[in-house]
Amino acid sequence: MSNASAKGTSDETIAALKALLPPLAQGRVLSLKLADGVVTLVLDGSGFDQIERERLEAAAKDAMRAAPGVSDVRVGIMADKDVPAPGPRIVAVGSGKGGVGKSTLSANLAVALARSGRKVGLVDADIYGPSQSRLLATEGIRPQAEGSKMFPVASPWGIGMLSMGQLIEPGQAIAWRGPMAGNALSQLIDAHWGDTELLVVDLPPGTGDVQLTMLQRFKPAGAVVVSTPQDLALMDATRALQLFDTGGVPVIGLVENMAGYACPHCGEVSDPFGAGGVEAAAAAMGHAFLGRVPLDLTIRQDSDAGRPPAASDGPQGEAFAAIARRVATWLDNQS
Length: 335
Ligand code: ADP
What we know:
Blueprint: H1 11-20, H2 23-26, E1 29-35, E2 38-44, H3 50-65, E3 72-78, E4 89-94, H4 102-115, E5 120-124, H5 132-135, E6 145-146, E7 149-150, E8 153-154, E9 160-163, H6 178-189, E10 198-202, H7 209-217, E11 222-227, H8 231-246, E12 251-262, E13 269-270, H9 277-285, E14 289-295, H10 297-304, H11 315-334
Parallel strand pairs: 2-3, 4-10, 4-11, 5-9, 5-10, 11-12, 12-14
Antiparallel strand pairs: 1-2, 6-7, 8-9, 12-13
Helix pairs in contact: 4-11, 6-7
This protein binds adenosine-5'-diphosphate.
The site of adenosine-5'-diphosphate has 17 residues, from helix 4, strand 12, strand 14 and helix 10.
C-alpha cells in the first residue's frame, strides 16, 4: 500500500488490505491497522480449535506480507467472544508398560461412567496397539468427517469413540514419528464431541510423544494409572506417575489389575502373584487407590468379543463400577 502514510491510513487502504485476506479471515477482522509499513491485525478466533487458529493466523500473515508497502505483520487471535461450550474434561489413563490392562480399564471405565448417567467419550491414543474398536464393538466403522474434523463413532455401549486405529488402514504398522503421532492425537481430541462431558483417553504405555502432546495441548483434568501388582510393573508405573506430576496433571489414583485369580468355577479369588502391591505403593506415594480388578477369564473373553464387562451387572462389572464411582467423585469434587 504505497499510499499509506504513518499517520491516519486511509479507509480505502484498510479496505484494500482487508480484501487481500483469505475469505475465512475477512469476516473475522476485529481490527486492522497499518502504520509505518507494519500491519497489526486482530482476528476473532471464536469456535476455532488450536489448529484452526494457527491456520487462520498463518494464512492472514501470508496474505498481508504479500501486500505492497508492508514490511511486517502482527496478527493476534482473540479468545472466544461468545464462549462456546467448554470441551469435555479429559481423564487420561496411563501405564508404565503394555499388557497390564490399560485399554481394558479405559473401555470399562468409560462404559461404567456412561451407565451412571454421564455423557462419555473415549479416545484410543495407543498408537502401538489400538484395541478400542474391538473392545467397544466398533470394528470396521469409519468415522465421518467434516473437513478435517471427525465425528465420533457410536459404540453400542452408550459412548462415542475415536481411535488411532481408525486413522490408518487395518494391519498397517504404525511407525509414526513424534509430531505425526501428536497431530493424530489432536485430531482425535479436537473432534465433534458435542455435549460429551468426559473424555477417557487411553494413552500408549510409557512416556513418549503422544503423552507429551496430551499434557501440552490438552491438559487432562486428571489421570488414572493402572499397574499389575508385580514390583517391576510398579516401577514402570512410577515413571508414568512422574510424567503426570511433571506435567501438572493431578493423579486421580492408581488401579491394580490382574490382582488375584478369580476361579472360573466358584468365583473365589486367590492371589498367585500376590495382591495389594499397588495399594501399598499408592499409599507410599501419597496417591489414592481406586480399586482392584482380579485376573478373570470372563474379562478377557468378554473384552475380546466386544462386550465390556462394565456393561453388565455381576462381579466383573461391579469391580469397574466401583473404580468409576471413585473417579466420578474425584471429578465432582474438583468442579
Ligand atoms: P494394555 O492396554 O495395558 O496393553 P490390555 O487392556 O490390552 O492391556 O490387556 C492385555 C490383555 O489382558 C488382553 O487380552 C485383556 O483382555 C487381558 N486382560 C486385561 N485385564 C484382565 C483381567 N483383569 N482379567 C483377565 N484378562 C485381562
